[in-house]
């Protein structure tokens, strides 16, 4: 592989996508700088394997303490580094939580993008910018959704993402910045946060099998999502910044499945009947729901040459196998086989 001698700055490196993106860029030869929040307990578990390699192998990864709410710190970092590419993945990213903390979500998930874009505009307009936009912006608009589909956000989180999305377009048009938005549909992995529905289910199943948990308490099972595999989606982010012109792209699988279907096939994979284990609690329902999301990815396929490989069923198996291993059990193994088959030379660490 040709080594790319570039510098990237990532916000949100400790999250699911940030950790995979850092591994992807480092595997390509990039020097990676990243923003990390100070926490009273460790928040680096997803990147600990990388941190270990900094000392052992001289991995060119540098962490900077800071927060997207602190514009001065963001400006200082960008002025000092003058990176080639900036990937803004940091966010208060939980839709249900955004109803509890709407102003905070607006500040970080929305205005956070302004702070970075302003720093780039004032520092060096050649710096390329990636904005993590979301299918949640489509909200109640009927599927399938593509780059031309109208937005109808249904949560404070989605409203904040719409703001950041339009601001990214505005800085592209007003200041000629190389600013792109990836409108990514739901994507999951063994590194998915534990309070998002897929991981809650796969982790719950492993705990039930291990006798540590009796069942799962859930919310709305009728919602349908277009679920893909995170490592493939961070590749799309990188591809967007390698194009000749900045643009926005929808990234997804083109298939949607309900939360109920995910439960059924996931419990079925381990030989259990989901209905015996699931109860409901109002706290997991949302004041307004997004019913159905299906990505129309024709533009990304045609212009980026991007296509997903991992299917819905395969994703679920990869996640359950990993959660079983994490709890000390022998995995069923189909998920591990799928990964070994599709990605024999994968660039990310084993989950
Ligand atoms: P995660 O929730 O896993 O990660 C979010 C990251 O943002 C974490 O590193 C978190 O740090 C960091 N962060 C949160 N608040 C702040 C703050 N105030 N200052 C600095 N950093 C902060 O998200 P994902 O990896 O799943 O998603 C990445 C991005 O893509 C997010 O912007 C998300 O909204 C968006 N997105 C995600 C999709 C998905 O399906 N995963 C789909 C479409 C868009 P810490 O670890 O300290 O909490
Ligand atoms: P979403 O993901 O809101 O689509 O946002 P999440 O996994 O939280 O919810 C998906 C659907 O499942 C329903 N649901 C539950 N959700 C959670 N979290 N917990 C439950 O117990 C539960 N029961 C049912 C939800 O109501 C919803 O319909 C994710 C985030 O990663 C965003 O940051 C990102 O922008 C979008 O995906 C695309």
Automatic annotation (TrEMBL):
<dbReference type="Pfam" id="PF16363">
    <property type="entry name" value="GDP_Man_Dehyd"/>
</dbReference>
<feature type="domain" description="NAD(P)-binding">
    <location>
        <begin position="9"/>
        <end position="319"/>
    </location>
</feature>
<comment type="similarity">
    <text>Belongs to the NAD(P)-dependent epimerase/dehydratase family. GDP-mannose 4,6-dehydratase subfamily.</text>
</comment>
<dbReference type="GO" id="GO:0008446">
    <property type="term" value="F:GDP-mannose 4,6-dehydratase activity"/>
</dbReference>
<dbReference type="InterPro" id="IPR036291">
    <property type="entry name" value="NAD(P)-bd_dom_sf"/>
</dbReference>
<protein>
    <recommendedName>
        <fullName>GDP-mannose 4,6-dehydratase</fullName>
        <ecNumber>4.2.1.47</ecNumber>
    </recommendedName>
</protein>
<feature type="binding site">
    <location>
        <position position="129"/>
    </location>
    <ligand>
        <name>NADP(+)</name>
    </ligand>
</feature>
<keyword id="KW-0521">NADP</keyword>
<dbReference type="InterPro" id="IPR006368">
    <property type="entry name" value="GDP_Man_deHydtase"/>
</dbReference>
<dbReference type="InterPro" id="IPR016040">
    <property type="entry name" value="NAD(P)-bd_dom"/>
</dbReference>
<keyword id="KW-0456">Lyase</keyword>
<comment type="function">
    <text>Catalyzes the conversion of GDP-D-mannose to GDP-4-dehydro-6-deoxy-D-mannose.</text>
</comment>
